[in-house]
Amino acid sequence: MITAALLAALATACALGAWRFTTARWTSRAPRVAIILWQSLGVAWGLATTGAMLAYAVQPYGAGVLAGLHAFANGETPREPWDLMHVLAMIAGLTALTVLVVVLLTAGVQALRARRRHRLLLALISHDDPGVPGVRVLDHPSAAAYCVPGLRSQVVVSEGTIRLLSQDELHAVLAHEAAHVRERHDLVLLPFAALRRALPWSKVVRDAQDQVELLVEMAADDRARRYCSPRRLATALLRFGTAGAMPTPHGMIGLHARAHTVMARVDRLVKPGPELSRRIRYGSIALSVTLLTATPFLWVIQL
């Protein structure tokens, strides 16, 4: 019973923490740290929520969540008789866990299929350009820049983008898209997109996904400015924002041109703020590690 109570308390703390975290002001100063903390909150919340129900359900076995589920699967007789509440908790816990896993796998499979179809399409409608080696170029007048993530990743720009941007700005945009590929931001975004599908009514989940999408873009900006001028990247973002850029295809990661996100990114590129204090940085990392270790631990022990 203590294990179930601890997991329920942890799930509540994660939900409240995510709600407060959506309004945190320091995240733009350390987007990678913020992304790690968001991922930790999401994983811990999912495991704690389902674990609380399952811990209560297997209480008659006198074992932890994993051991109790193993005993239940093997048809072992519990030490204490089950009542209706334990049966309902088992059904709810297994249903919630199954939904989370299925939604995550479904989102992953759909993204892989969309990327495979898009690669086939790119082979037909795009071409190489000596001016931008290693990049696929679409013969389209609108501005577009995105990457197709995966083992055979590709960076794609349109003819409209090449005409719209200067050479330095184009180099900055390509560095930004290459950062998405290197850091596998598609894998960062996938769990939040899956959680959004599982809980479409949740404002916290919607805000969390929006926050992580912006943080991913900021993290790519930070990596890109190692190889280009931050001001060139900022002007490229502004040009995209005013040119009516094409929407990014499903399953890809593209240069977002939404006004509120563009201005937030431009501001931090042109006027970078002070570095994040060590107290917040290391505290956030320590909290992430604690969440990712404590939650699985509570699945194993019996208190």
TrEMBL record:
Domain of life according to the entry: Bacteria
Domain Peptidase M48: 114-190
Pfam families: Peptidase_M48
TM segment ranges: 30-47, 85-109, 280-301
The protein's required cofactors: Zn(2+)
Classification via PANTHER family: POSSIBLE SENSOR-TRANSDUCER PROTEIN BLAR, SLR0241 PROTEIN
Name of the protein in question: Zn-dependent protease with chaperone function
